[in-house]
């Protein structure tokens, strides 16, 4: 197992700069996700790693080996594309065994290896089926089996679940996690779907529209402690409120025009804690408690009027308009064992949140 290292890589298409001195390290043996909006360069990175494109400048390493100019067939890296690129006229067995047959592996070894990988992707018994007769989820597994049969050190997955419906996608996410855990192969998963990335990744990198990496961390670190407004907005829903950082009697507060002052916790990056500095408060909707009652012992309190109620099944989203016209999103878990207040449109409500649940972001 060897880590992937991208050093100062630049890539342009037709004069348009897609990646500008990109640096990235992908740990070996992990499920790593590249998450970002469409057109930010995620697939370009995958194609450079696979050897399907060449860099304009910079280096790509697999462990200590410089693979920048190594041809695709000599890299121990395989790819599963959004369009699975299976051979429709061949059987499942022949699709999966194709790479081994090209290498000249003997028939007995091919059969043993094919049956091993079909067991891993839960397709034993389907080996004689034609590709056309398989469902989308089964075709996805065939593409995975064909990619892993040559035992690559790295498996690249480019939006592999985009064509599947929601329920099948959720099932395949679990199967991908289980497969990576069995194989211990480095998976690099490219997606613009934050739900997918948060579900599968051991570690993830968030890319912005300029092709720059905004933040790298575990899904929990990214979601709970975003490093920028872009990350906070892109990963999950959130509320971002601008204010001025102040120090009152040794405590930090953020003064928001028209709404008052709010207690905040000491941020991780203490170096930029300068009083009178304009910053942003990031508050996740599920960290806010909504009630028509007045409740003591919360650090911060707002009032407003309910203008939207959106039922999501597991939770209900309330959009609350404050007196300044700002809209605050609140998620309330739908717990049938705990009686909930009957909150309706136009109800006046109180919003409560603790200072520990506020993440400060620089302007």
Q: How helix-rich are the residues, as a percent range?
A: 10-25%
What is the CATH superfamily classification of the largest domain? P-loop containing nucleotide triphosphate hydrolases
Q: Compute the gyration radius: what is it?
A: 25 Å
- How would you name the oligomeric state of the polypeptide chains in this document? single chain
Order of helices and strands: EEEHEEEHHHEHEHEEHHEEEEEEEEEE
Share of residues in strands: 25-35%
Structural class comes to alpha+beta
Please identify the top-level CATH class of the largest domain. Alpha Beta
Distance between the ends: 40 Å
Poorly predicted ranges:
none
**What is the second-level CATH architecture of the largest domain?**
3-Layer(aba) Sandwich
Task: Return the CATH topology of the largest domain.
Answer: Rossmann fold
Our count of helices gives: 8
What would you call the shape? Answer: globular
